[in-house]
């Protein structure tokens, strides 16, 4: 995934003279995860450059550049560092097109290394999709594999709207085929595995975990469908309905705390559209309502295979009355 993202940025800079990549250590160092490795050498320090350690300044710069006609691709080094830029993201990035009656579109793609799984210190692992998805004017997307990372990043940068691009950092070193010529559909959700007994809904790093769970469940004859949501704003309600209408049961899996997490919105969308055919309430398997822990406690916090299997069991064994 790291190489796929790097290539997408490289090709964008080569073909779009208005594109700029900037953030903390993204220049000569190539970023802490080496996503921007070699880009400054190839495209120059005026288009790929380091910023001060000031996330509010990074996003403020992005807003100003977009107003001037550029296509900024800023990075916050870790998701936990995004909080100082919330004012710029909410009050400027998400609203500028609206408040200017369309005169000032915001073609900004904010790259956010997201979620846990790398045993990082506190503030280096978060799951902020609900915060971003709640902001009118923003689009939010999270790829789950290298092919999606390459094509979705290029598609996001080409959009006239601000996009929060949440990269699952625990999957940066995942290997996979990338078809450069045939991206497939880049809109809405995608079925990562077909099934008939239950739908697992996930995004980002949790898609791979749900695919592992589906493999284990298949050994017991349970055919699990895995739906990769991908776009977290707007959510593909029709894709959700199509999958759950077939299986009649659903479990939503995410790393963020449960209360007011995106899983609640997903569950409600499923209920609205599939209430007549659901055979059990929609289950959620999530992080806990505590601050995202540092690395030593990640295994206790992030939904693991056993917790997801227990969630599946509860739904399959549910009986009305």
Characterization of this structure:
The structure is a single chain. Helix content is 36%, strand content 18%. The chain is of the alpha/beta class and 321 residues long.
List keywords for this structure.
321 residues; alpha/beta; 5-stranded mixed beta sheet; 4-stranded mixed beta sheet; 36% helix
Please identify the oligomeric state: single chain
The H/E string reads HEHEHEHHEHEHEEEHEEHEHEHH
Number of helices: 12
The largest sheet, given as strand count, sense and whether it forms a barrel, is: 5 strands, mixed
Distance between the termini: 47 Å
Radius of gyration: 20 Å
- What's the total count of β strands? 12
Look at the structure and give the mean pLDDT: 97
Beta percentage is 15-25%
From the spread of the alpha carbons, the general shape counts as globular
Structural class: alpha/beta
Give a concise summary:
By secondary structure, the chain is α/β, with parallel strands linked by helices. The protein has helices at 2-15, 39-43, 55-67, 86-93, 96-99, 129-133, 146-158, 205-218, 237-247, 262-274, 298-301, 305-316, and strands spanning 19-23, 48-50, 71-75, 109-114, 139-141, 163-168, 190-193, 198-202, 224-228, 231-233, 250-257, 283-287. It is globular.
């Amino acid at each position: 995934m790291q190489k796929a993202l790097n290539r997408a940025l490289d090709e964008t800079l080569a073909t779009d003279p208005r594109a700029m990549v900037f953030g903390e250590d993204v220049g000569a160092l190539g970023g802490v995860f080496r996503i921007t490795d070699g880009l400054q050498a190839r495209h120059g320090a005026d288009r790929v450059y380091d910023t001060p350690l000031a996330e509010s300044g990074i996003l403020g710069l992005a807003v100003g550049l977009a107003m001037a006609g550029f296509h900024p691709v800023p990075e916050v080094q870790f998701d936990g560092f995004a909080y100082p830029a919330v004012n710029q993201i909410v009050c400027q990035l998400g609203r500028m097109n609206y408040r200017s009656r369309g005169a000032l579109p915001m073609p900004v793609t904010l790259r956010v290394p997201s979620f846990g799984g790398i045993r990082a210190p506190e503030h280096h692992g978060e799951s902020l999709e609900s915060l971003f998805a709640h902001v009118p004017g923003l689009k939010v997307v999270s790829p789950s594999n290298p092919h999606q990372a390459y094509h979705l990043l290029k598609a996001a940068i080409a959009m006239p709207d601000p996009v929060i691009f949440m990269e699952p950092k625990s999957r940066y070193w995942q290997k996979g085929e990338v078809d450069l010529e045939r991206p497939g559909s880049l809109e809405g959700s995608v079925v990562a595995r077909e099934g008939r007994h239950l739908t697992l809904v996930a995004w980002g790093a949790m898609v791979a975990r749900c695919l592992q769970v589906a493999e284990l469940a298949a050994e017991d004859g349970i055919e699990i469908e895995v739906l990769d949501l991908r776009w977290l704003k707007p959510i593909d309600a029709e894709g959700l309905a199509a999958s759950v209408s077939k299986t009649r049961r659903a479990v939503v899996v995410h790393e963020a705390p449960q209360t007011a997490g995106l899983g609640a919105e997903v569950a409600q969308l499923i209920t609205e559209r599939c209430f007549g055919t659901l055979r059990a309430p929609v289950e959620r398997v999530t992080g806990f309502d505590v601050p995202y822990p540092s690395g030593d406690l990640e295994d206790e916090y992030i939904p693991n295979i056993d917790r997801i299997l227990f969630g599946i069991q509860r739904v399959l064994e549910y009986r009305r009355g």
